[in-house]
Amino acid sequence: MVILHPVLLESHSNNAVADVLKDVTILSTLYDIPPRLELTPRLECVHLLSAGSDHIRESALYKNTQIPITTSSGIHGPIIGEWVIMMLLTASHKFPILYEWRKEHNWNDSAGAKANFATVSDLVGKRLGILGYGSIGRQVARNARAFGMEVIAFTRSPRLTAKSKHDNGYIVPGMGDPDGSIPNAWFSGLRKESLHEFLNQDLDYLLVSIPLNDETRRLLGRAEFDILSKKNAFIVNVARGDILVQEDLIEALRQYQSGAMPPGSAPRGLRGAAMDVATPEPLPRDNDLWNAPNCMITPHMSGSNIDYAARALRVLEKNLEQMAANRKLLNLVNRQTGYASSEE
What we know:
Blueprint: E1 2-3, H1 6-10, H2 15-21, E2 26-29, E3 45-48, H3 60-64, E4 69-70, H4 77-92, H5 95-103, H6 111-117, E5 127-131, H7 135-146, E6 150-155, E7 185-188, H8 192-199, E8 205-208, H9 222-228, E9 234-237, H10 246-258, E10 272-275, E11 295-297, H11 308-324
Parallel strand pairs: 1-2, 2-3, 3-4, 5-6, 5-8, 6-7, 8-9, 9-10, 10-11
Helix pairs in contact: 4-7
């Protein structure tokens, strides 16, 4: 086994490095893989230290071999689950306003300020839709239930039996929703009609936590945001920026801020968003998303934490045990869908 580093790839023509790679059977890497298949003739398995595999999907190893690829899906649940709840509370308690007052040394207890905070709402009874009920979605559901929220799940494949709702991937002990019992309702499907039925469930919040592939690229756009506008939903994206049509998201956020509405109806648009991902990344300084109203942005770091490497290698350790016992690997990537085994 070799933990692959970019420097190793950059110097792959070196005879000493080539001698190491030719004997590698298990390869663990974050982003980089050997550029040529002949460099690793004995390779039996690749373990990605990331949750997704979209960044290697165009590689020869992915497209032209059947070498098993596993991910570290499951390790991100605790930290990203906390990030999501942090964003929901930051928005619902209007913390950005308080932070600005703090920077201004402004103890603002005026009548107008107090009236602004009279509209603060807690999370009890709010409905959270989770688009992609994998390890991250399950941990967010666990957290949301503790705050009294209702959870509506959506997956690519149906979950019609109790067994089918189980999480078969890696789970940080004591975390997630191992038996799939948390959702108040569960929707599934590959067609837009199925997605729209899910989005029509009076959602107050929508979490986007699905892998990026050809099916999910630009999955959420004007039509979907229009459905969510019925309750002026708040969107959280911890997946990939390209799953949303970003310009349509910005338009929906601006629409809500403008307060434009037909006579006798409620405001349309989305009341806010929290984005840990964007298109492109890094997000250019002049991109319109920076100025989108009520949109919080972080630089794709919601999963960063001190325990990341140890947990990722724990998944690899479990899979080495699975291989030795000739059992199915955890988080095995389906090359057709791009999903790990626990995410479909």
